[in-house]
C-alpha cells in the first residue's frame, strides 16, 4: 500500500536551549509520508515523536532541515500560509478533543468546513451533517461540548479534522484520554477513513492503537530507529480477536527487537 | 494569616495585567473625583477668603447719595444685627473702551459700572499681567490710569495699555489701563455690576463733576441701566457678633435691612452669599458636570471590578476546589480575593488622589476669568479623601458579596476542572453561517457568555450617555443663535439712540432697511428693584418675541402692562406660578401688583430676573425709563450687515443718533464665549477621558477573556483560522456589545439629557436648556464609541498570535 509521498522531511533537526543547556530533540530526521498510508509513529515518552509531529505539521519550526508538502517547502512558511494549509490540507486530532466550548458539536464540525475553498456554506453543512451522522453524533449534534461525553467529543474532533477532506490527518495520541470502548470507536473511525484513502499520521505509544496502521515507525533519541510494514487494517475483522492478536504480536515482536 | 498572604500575592501575580487594568480605571476615577472636588473647594474657598481679606461686608449695598446721605448709616448703626459699617463714595459714569491705537474696543457698556478711589475701599490685590500671580508692590493707578477686573478682559478684551474713556457731562477723561485687580465682589463677568479703580486724587477731582452732572440731570436713578453720571454711597455692612452667633448670615441681614427700610428704593443690595453665588455659578455647574462624570467613572470601575472578581471566581473554580480539598477554608479564599482587589484599589485610589492634587492647579488660571479671584494655594481636599474612602468601602463590599460564591465551590469542582460548573446559555442564538463567519462566531461568543459582557455593556452605556450629553451641550452652545436659545437671551445687531428730536424712529427704520431688512425692532429697559432685600432685574421689552419661545417653561410672554414673566429661580424663591400675584414696591415705595403670566428659562440675573412689556416697566418705574425709550434695538435679517447699517446711519444722521450697541446682553458675548470655550474644553477632555476609559475597560475584559478562551482559540487556529480572522471576530464582539450598550446610553441621553442638564443649569436660570442631540449625532457617538471598543479589542487581541496549537498537544 502507499502512494506518492505527500509529506517529506529531510535532515530535520530541532534543538532547544533551556537554562543555557542545549537539548537536541530531532537529529536529522529523513522521512516520507505516502498518500493513503496510515503511518504510526511510536516511541517511548520523551523520545521526541510529538516534536516530530509538530515540525511535520508546521506547528513548530525546525532548527534545521526542511519539510515539504506535495513538494512545496512548508518549513519556514509564514503564519498565514500555514493557516491556509491547516484549513485546506491538514487535519488535527489531539489527545483532548479541544472543541470550541461555545459551539455545538455540529458547529464545531461545520465551522472549519466553511473555510474550505470552492465549497458553498450549504455544501459545508451537508458534509458536516454526513460526518456527524457517520460519527454517531446525531443525537447530540446540538449539544455543547460540556454537555457531551469524552468519547462523543473525541469523535466530534475526528469529524472536525476531516471535514475539509484534508490531504493528511495528524493525530497525536487521539485515544490517550479515552476509555477502551471510546478508544476503539475513535480508532475505528480513523481506520475507516484511511480505508477510504485518507492519509493519517498518528503518534502513539499504545500497541493496540498502533496496529491500526499499515506503516509503523519507531522513534527514539531523536531519530527513526526502525520501520515495519503491516497489511492494511481490515475493518471488517476488527472484532476478530485472532486477527487483532496476530497484528499485536507482530508489532510487539518488532518493538521488542528494537528494545522497546 | 500566612496562607492568606501567600494566596493574595499569588493571585495578584497571576492576574497582574487584570489588576493593572483595574488600577488604571480606578486611578482615572480617583483623579477625576479629586480634581473636581479639589477645584471646587479651592475656587469657592479662595472666593470666600478673598472676600474676607478684602473686607467685603455681609451685605454690600449701593445707594443713591443725594436722597440718603448719612441716613442709612445712622439707621444701620441703630440695628442690633449690624456690626461694622464701612461707607465709601463712588460714582457711575458712561464710558467706552479703546485699544492702544484709539480704536473702539468691545461694546458700549449696558451694565452698572462705577468708579472708586484705589486704597480707600476694599483692600484689593493687583494681579500680574498674566493673571497668574499677585503684583505685590503694585503702586496703584496714577492720575491718568485705571485698574480694572479680569472680567473686562473677558467681556471687552481690555488689556494693559488700552483706554477707558469716561464721560462726565461735557468733559471726557481718558484713562490708561495700568493693571488688573482681584475683586471677589464684582470681578466675575457674571456680575451685572463692575468696578473700576482710579487714583484717589483724580477720583476726588471727578466726584464733584459727577455730582454736578447728577444735579443737572435732575435726579434719575443711577442703578437703572442707563448711561448717566451719578455719585453714590457704597456700604459694606457686617453682621454683629451676636447676630452671627445666632446663626444669621448675609441673606438674613439683607432681608432685615430691607424690612427696616434702611435703604432708599433705588438701592442695589447684595448679600455676600448672593455675590459669591453669582461669581461661582459657572464653577458650580462645571463642578456638577465633572462630579457626575467622575462618579460615572467610578461606577464603571466598580462594575468592571465586580465583573472581574466574578470571572476570577469562575475561572478559579478548580483551583479553589483543590485549595479546599487540601484544607484551605472558604474564609481564607474569600479574604485573599478581597485583599487582592482592596490592595489594588487602595493603591490606585491613592495614586489618583495624588495625581488629582498635582494636576488641579492647572485649572486655576482659566477659572480666574470666571470667578474674578486668583487661587494660588490648594486646600487639602478632605472631602475628596472622605468620598474616596467611601467609594473604596463600596468597592470592597461589592467584591466581598461576590466572594461569597467561593463558599459554594466544592472540592469536586477541582476534579472536574470546573467544567461542570461552567454555565452556557442554551440555544436561541443565531446560526453560524459561512458567509459572515467572524461576525457570527462573535455573536455566538457573546450569546453564550452574556454575563461576561454585561459589565462591558454597562460601561458602554454610561460612557455613551455621557459623551452624547457632552456633545448635546456643546452643540447647544455652538452657535450664537443656539446660545441665545439655550440661555434665554437675545442680542441686538444695531442700537440706535435718538440724540436729538430732529430724527424720528420711522426715519431710522427706513434708513436701516435701505441696507438690510429688519427682523425685530424693540425698546428695552432694565431696572433693579429690591425684593426680599436682594436686587432683581426687571426688564421691559416692547417686543417680547425677541426671546425665543422655547425659553418659556410655563405660561406665555407678557402682553399686558400688569403681567410679568418671572425667571426660574425667582419663581422658585417666591413660589410663583402662572396666575399668582407678585407684589413689588416701585421706586417711590408704592406697592404694585403684577400677575405672573409665565415662567422663563433665562440667565438674566441668574434666573432671578423678571420680564414685563415695555409699557409694564414704564408703569412700574415711571419717568426713570425716559432715556431707554429713546434707544431702539434692531435685529437684522442678515446680522453681517450690522456694520454697514451703522456706517449708513452715521453718514445719514451724524451726531443726531448714537449707534453704539446698548442691548442688554451686548456685553454678554465675551462671557458666553468664555463659557462656551470652557464647556468645549471640558467636553473634549471628558470625551478623551471616556475613550481612555473605554480602552482600559476593553484591556481589562479582553485580557480575562483571551486567557479563558486560549484553548478555544488554539482549536480554531488548528482548524485553519487565521490570526487576523480571530482578532476580527474578537473585535466584533466588543463592537456589538458596545453598540448595544451605547445605543441604550445614547437613547437615555436623547430622552432624558435635556431635563438632566436643565436641572443642572437651572442653578443660573437656564432650566429649559435643551441639548442639541439630533438622532444622527447620537447614532454617530454610539458608533464611534463602539469603534473605539472594537479597535481596542483588536489591538489587545494581538496576544492571539501567541496562542500556540502545540499547547493543545499533550506529550
Tell me about the biggest sheet of chain B?
A: 12 strands, mixed
The average pLDDT of chain B is: 82
Write out the strand line-up for the largest beta sheet of chain A, numbering strands in chain order.
6-7-8-3-9-10
Distance between the termini of chain A: 26 Å
Instruction: Count every helix of chain B, treating DSSP H or I runs of 4 or more residues as helices.
Output: 26
Q: Quaternary status of these chains?
A: heterodimer
- Proportion of residues in extended strands of chain B: 15-25%
CATH top level of the largest domain in chain A is Alpha Beta
Classification by helices and strands of chain A: alpha/beta
- What is the general shape of chain A? globular
Strand element count of chain B = 22
CATH architecture of the largest domain in chain A: 3-Layer(aba) Sandwich
In total, the number of strands of chain A is 10
Radius of gyration of chain B: 33 Å
The largest sheet of chain A, given as strand count, sense and whether it forms a barrel, is: 6 strands, mixed
Describe the structure.
The complex is a heterodimer of chains A (260) and B (811). Chain A has 260 residues and is α/β, with parallel strands linked by helices. Chain A folds into 2 domains: 34-59 and 78-89 and 167-260, Rossmann fold, CATH 3.40.50.300; 92-165, no CATH class. In chain A, 35% of the residues lie in helices and 26% in strands. Chain A is built from 8 helices and 10 strands. Chain A has helices at residues 49-57, 79-88, 105-113, 121-134, 150-162, 180-195, 207-210, 241-257, and strands at 5-18, 21-34, 38-42, 64-69, 72-73, 90-93, 168-172, 199-203, 215-220, 223-229. A 6-stranded mixed beta sheet of chain A has the order 6-7-8-3-9-10, with helices on both faces. A 4-stranded antiparallel beta sheet of chain A has the order 2-1-4-5, with helices on one face. In chain A, a hairpin with a 2-residue loop joins strand 4 and strand 5 (72-73). The longest helix of chain A is centred in the C-terminal third of the chain and has 17 residues, at 241-257. Chain A is globular. In chain B, helix 5 (150-156) packs across helix 23, helix 17 packs across helix 25 (723-761) and helix 23 runs parallel beside helix 26 (775-796). Chain B has 4 domains: 1-58 and 249-266 and 273-422, no CATH class; 63-246, no CATH class; 437-486 and 666-811, no CATH class; 490-664, no CATH class. Chain B is of the alpha+beta class and 811 residues long. The longest helix of chain B is centred in the C-terminal third of the chain and has 41 residues, at 668-708. Residues 222-226 and 418-428 of chain B have low confidence and may be disordered. Chain B is elongated and about 100 Å long. In chain B, strands 1, 2, 3, 4, 5, 6, 7, 8, 9, 10, 11 and 12 form a 12-stranded mixed beta sheet that branches. In chain B, strands 13, 14, 15, 16, 17, 18, 19, 20, 21 and 22 form a 10-stranded mixed beta sheet that branches.
Amino acid at each position: 500500500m502507499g502512494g506518492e509521498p505527500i509529506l517529506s522531511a529531510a535532515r530535520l533537526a530541532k534543538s532547544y536551549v533551556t537554562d543555557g543547556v542545549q537539548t537536541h530533540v530531532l537529529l536529522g530526521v529523513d522521512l516520507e509520508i505516502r498518500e493513503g498510508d496510515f503511518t504510526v509513529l511510536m516511541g517511548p515518552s520523551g523520545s521526541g515523536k510529538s516534536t516530530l509531529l509538530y515540525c511535520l505539521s508546521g506547528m513548530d519550526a525546525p532548527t534545521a532541515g526542511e519539510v515539504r508538502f506535495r513538494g512545496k517547502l512548508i518549513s519556514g512558511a509564514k503564519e498565514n500560509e500555514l493557516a491556509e494549509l491547516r484549513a485546506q490540507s491538514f487535519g488535527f486530532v489531539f489527545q483532548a478533543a479541544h472543541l470550541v466550548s461555545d459551539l455545538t458539536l455540529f458547529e464545531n464540525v461545520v465551522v472549519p468546513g466553511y473555510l474550505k475553498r470552492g465549497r458553498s456554506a450549504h455544501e459545508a453543512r451537508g458534509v458536516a451533517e454526513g460526518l456527524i451522522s457517520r460519527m454517531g453524533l446525531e443525537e447530540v449534534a446540538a449539544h455543547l461540548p460540556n454537555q457531551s461525553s469524552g468519547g462523543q467529543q473525541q469523535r466530534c474532533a475526528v469529524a472536525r479534522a476531516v471535514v475539509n477532506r484534508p490531504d493528511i490527518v495528524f493525530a497525536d495520541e487521539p485515544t490517550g484520554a479515552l476509555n477502551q470502548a471510546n478508544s476503539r470507536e475513535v480508532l475505528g473511525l480513523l481506520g475507516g477513513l484511511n480505508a477510504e484513502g485518507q492519509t493519517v499520521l498518528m503518534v502513539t505509544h499504545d500497541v493496540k492503537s498502533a496496529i491500526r496502521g499499515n506503516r509503523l515507525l519507531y522513534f527514539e533519541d531523536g531519530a527513526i530507529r526502525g520501520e515495519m510494514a503491516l497489511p492494511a487494517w481490515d475493518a471488517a475483522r476488527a472484532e476478530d480477536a485472532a486477527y487483532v492478536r496476530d497484528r499485536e504480536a507482530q508489532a510487539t515482536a518488532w518493538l521488542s527487537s528494537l528494545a522497546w | 494569616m500566612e496562607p492568606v498572604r501567600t494566596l493574595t500575592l499569588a493571585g495578584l501575580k497571576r492576574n497582574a495585567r487584570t489588576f493593572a487594568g483595574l488600577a488604571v480605571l480606578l486611578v482615572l476615577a480617583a483623579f477625576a473625583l479629586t480634581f473636581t472636588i479639589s477645584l471646587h473647594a479651592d475656587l469657592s474657598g479662595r472666593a470666600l477668603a478673598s472676600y474676607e481679606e478684602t473686607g467685603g461686608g455681609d451685605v454690600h449695598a449701593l445707594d443713591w447719595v443725594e436722597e440718603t446721605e448719612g441716613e442709612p448709616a445712622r439707621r444701620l448703626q441703630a440695628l442690633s444685627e449690624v456690626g461694622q459699617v464701612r461707607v465709601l463714595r463712588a460714582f457711575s459714569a458712561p464710558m467706552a473702551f479703546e485699544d492702544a491705537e484709539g480704536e473702539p474696543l468691545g461694546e458700549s457698556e449696558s451694565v452698572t459700572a462705577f468708579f472708586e478711589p484705589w486704597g480707600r475701599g476694599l483692600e484689593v490685590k493687583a494681579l500680574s499681567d498674566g493673571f497668574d500671580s499677585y503684583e505685590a508692590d503694585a503702586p496703584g493707578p496714577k492720575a491718568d490710569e485705571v485698574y480694572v477686573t479680569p472680567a473686562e478682559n473677558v467681556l471687552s478684551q481690555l488689556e494693559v495699555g488700552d483706554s477707558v474713556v469716561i464721560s462726565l457731562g461735557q468733559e471726557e477723561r481718558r484713562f490708561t489701563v495700568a493693571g488688573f485687580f482681584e475683586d471677589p465682589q464684582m470681578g466675575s463677568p457674571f456680575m451685572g455690576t463692575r468696578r473700576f479703580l482710579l487714583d484717589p486724587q483724580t477720583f476726588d477731582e471727578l466726584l464733584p463733576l459727577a455730582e454736578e452732572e447728577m444735579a443737572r440731570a435732575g435726579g434719575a436713578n443711577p442703578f437703572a441701566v442707563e448711561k448717566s453720571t451719578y455719585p453714590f454711597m457704597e456700604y459694606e455692612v457686617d453682621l454683629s457678633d451676636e447676630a452671627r452667633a445666632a446663626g444669621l448670615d448675609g441673606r438674613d441681614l439683607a432681608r432685615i435691612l430691607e424690612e427696616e427700610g434702611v435703604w432708599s428704593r433705588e438701592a442695589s443690595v447684595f448679600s455676600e452669599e448672593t455675590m459669591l453665588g453669582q461669581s461661582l455659578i459657572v464653577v458650580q455647574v462645571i463642578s456638577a458636570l465633572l462630579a457626575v462624570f467622575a462618579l460615572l467613572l467610578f461606577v464603571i470601575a466598580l462594575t468592571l471590578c465586580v465583573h472581574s472578581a466574578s470571572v476570577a471566581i469562575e475561572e478559579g473554580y478548580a483551583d479553589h476546589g483543590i485549595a479546599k480539598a487540601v484544607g484551605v477554608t472558604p474564609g481564607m479564599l474569600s479574604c485573599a480575593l478581597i485583599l487582592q482587589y482592596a490592595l489594588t484599589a487602595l493603591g490606585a485610589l491613592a495614586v489618583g488622589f495624588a495625581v488629582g492634587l498635582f494636576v488641579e492647579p492647572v485649572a486655576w488660571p482659566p477659572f480666574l476669568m470666571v470667578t474674578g479671584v486668583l487661587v494660588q494655594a490648594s486646600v487639602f481636599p478632605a472631602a475628596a479623601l472622605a468620598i474616596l474612602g467611601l467609594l473604596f468601602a463600596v468597592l470592597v463590599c461589592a467584591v466581598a458579596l461576590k466572594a461569597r460564591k467561593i463558599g459554594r465551590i466544592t472540592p469536586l469542582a477541582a476534579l472536574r476542572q470546573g467544567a461542570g460548573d461552567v454555565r452556557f446559555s442554551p440555544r436561541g442564538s443565531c446560526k453560524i453561517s459561512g458567509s459572515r463567519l467572524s461576525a457570527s462566531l462573535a455573536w455566538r461568543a457573546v450569546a453564550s457568555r452574556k454575563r461576561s459582557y454585561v459589565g462591558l455593556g454597562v460601561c458602554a452605556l454610561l460612557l455613551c450617555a455621557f459623551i452624547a450629553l457632552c456633545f448635546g451641550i456643546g452643540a447647544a452652545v455652538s452657535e450664537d443663535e443656539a446660545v441665545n436659545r439655550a440661555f434665554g437671551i437675545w442680542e441686538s445687531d444695531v442700537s440706535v439712540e435718538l440724540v436729538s428730536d430732529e430724527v424720528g424712529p420711522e426715519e431710522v427704520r427706513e434708513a436701516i432697511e435701505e441696507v438690510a431688512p429688519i427682523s425685530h425692532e424693540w425698546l428695552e429697559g432694565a431696572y433693579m428693584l429690591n425684593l426680599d432685600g436682594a436686587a432683581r432685574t426687571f426688564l421691559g421689552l416692547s417686543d417680547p418675541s425677541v426671546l425665543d419661545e422655547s425659553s418659556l417653561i410655563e405660561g406665555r410672554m407678557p402682553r399686558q402692562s400688569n403681567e410679568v414673566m418671572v425667571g426660574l429661580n425667582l419663581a422658585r424663591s417666591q413660589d410663583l406660578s402662572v396666575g399668582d400675584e407678585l407684589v413689588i414696591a416701585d421706586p417711590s415705595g408704592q406697592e404694585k401688583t403684577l400677575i405672573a403670566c409665565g415662567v422663563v428659562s433665562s440667565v438674566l440675573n441668574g434666573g432671578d430676573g423678571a420680564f414685563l412689556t415695555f409699557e409694564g416697566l414704564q408703569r412700574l418705574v415711571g419717568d426713570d425709563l425716559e432715556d431707554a425709550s429713546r434707544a431702539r434695538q434692531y435685529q437684522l435679517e442678515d446680522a453681517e450687515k450690522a456694520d454697514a447699517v451703522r456706517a449708513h446711519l452715521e453718514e445719514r444722521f451724524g451726531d443726531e443718533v448714537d449707534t453704539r450697541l446698548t442691548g442688554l446682553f451686548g456685553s454678554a458675548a465675551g462671557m458666553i464665549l468664555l463659557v462656551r470655550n470652557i464647556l468645549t474644553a471640558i467636553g473634549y477632555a471628558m470625551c478623551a477621558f471616556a475613550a481612555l476609559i473605554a480602552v482600559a475597560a476593553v484591556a481589562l475584559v479582553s485580557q480575562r477573556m483571551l486567557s479563558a478562551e486560549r484553548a478555544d482559540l488554539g482549536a480554531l487556529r488548528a482548524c485553519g483560522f487565521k490570526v487576523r480572522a480571530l482578532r476580527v471576530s474578537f473585535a466584533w464582539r466588543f463592537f456589538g456589545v458596545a453598540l448595544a450598550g451605547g445605543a441604550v446610553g445614547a437613547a437615555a441621553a436623547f430622552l432624558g439629557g435635556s431635563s438632566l442638564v436643565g436641572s443642572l443649569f437651572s442653578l443660573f436660570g437656564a432650566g429649559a436648556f435643551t441639548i442639541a442631540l439630533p438622532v444622527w449625532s447620537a447614532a454617530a457617538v454610539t458608533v464611534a464609541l463602539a469603534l473605539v471598543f472594537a479597535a481596542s479589542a483588536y489591538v489587545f487581541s494581538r496576544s492571539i498570535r501567541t496562542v500556540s496549537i502545540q499547547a493543545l498537544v499533550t506529550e
